[in-house]
Amino acid sequence: MKFIPGRTDHSHSNPNLHNLKFLFPPIMLKINQSWSNPPNLVNLGMISSQIPESISQMIFNSFRNFVLLLFLLAAIPFLHAGNDPWLLGGRRVAMGGAGNSNSADLWSLFANPAGMAGLDMMRAGLAVERRFMLASLNAGGFGFGMPFREKHVFGVYAAASGFDLYRENRIGLNYATEILDVVNLGARLNIYNTSIQSYGSAMSPVLDFGITAPVSRQFSAGASVANANLANLSREINEEIPTVLSIGVAYRPSSKVSLVADMVKHVDFPADFRAGLEYKLNSLLSIRSGIATAPVSLNYGFGLKIKNLNLDFGNSHHSDLGYSGHLSIGIDLGNSGAKPAESQPNP
After folding, report:
1. Is residue 173 in some structural domain?
2. Neighbours of 73 (CB within 10 A)
3. How many Cβ atoms sit within 10 Å of the Cβ of residue 143?
4. What would the pLDDT profile of 251-295 be if each residue is shown by its tens digit?
5. Do both 311 and 171 map to the same domain?
6. Tens digit of pLDDT for each residue in 329-340?
7. Which end of the chain has fewer beta carbons closer than 10 Å to its terminal beta carbon, N or C?
């Protein structure tokens, strides 16, 4: 973690800070908005008119940032891994966040790295999210996947979230392959960058691994681990970025219906059960719904497929903080020249 000279360094290195902006966003945003134009202390009679306005501005800006950080630090004990700010892709969001057993899925760039196996053509996508319908909590990401040779898939992504006081950026390289047509393996190298305005930034490499098994045309399973290398946010303080274990299954009783269920376990918090349902009305339109338990979230959405364009919308509802809207657009770019692998089921 790089710190600004003259600052203390004991309050900016907890790896859970990446979720803090989502815990009490209405409170922090109201504070931020209220103090974006600090009051004139001269008019309030608190200090004499001899003190320059620039000093008054500086004092209130410093105090505002200090109080915001106090809210962040006070919230750390109440963080929960179920509140995942990197769940991009409208289809998966609409199905409760479940889908760890997916195959041929571009948005597995943000989940199980093995889920890209089976992709038979180049595909690119863009996803955006408005967390709790607050502009300052927007998140977004771009992904690209490309098969090469036979049964190998390469992917790359970039994503960002946050606001002026706290921001996260991530980039990653993903590799997935099929083994003997019965199991898919995947690995991803991520670079996390976290910054707090006026306090510094930190950068860490993070490794994710995953496996999926398309047992049959109707049933598949998957498992993954995020931050398998137990990376630290900062060398100065031995605090690890959260490690998350996930397992999932999918069942397709017919070509129109898909059922998915995941169990997601943050090493320091209770397990989060997620489940979702998709029903394909026709070749163009699919409707979806889902639920998550930690925290409790009710989700729904739909998908449209128009030629080589896929449009997916998902909405999630947190009982205390409200709605979050998710939109992703994917486009099939055609064959990369690699020999397509045998098609795998994708719930």
Report:
1. yes
2. 15
3. 26
4. 999 999 999 999 999 888 889 999 999 999 999 999 999 999 988
5. yes
6. 999 998 765 554
7. N
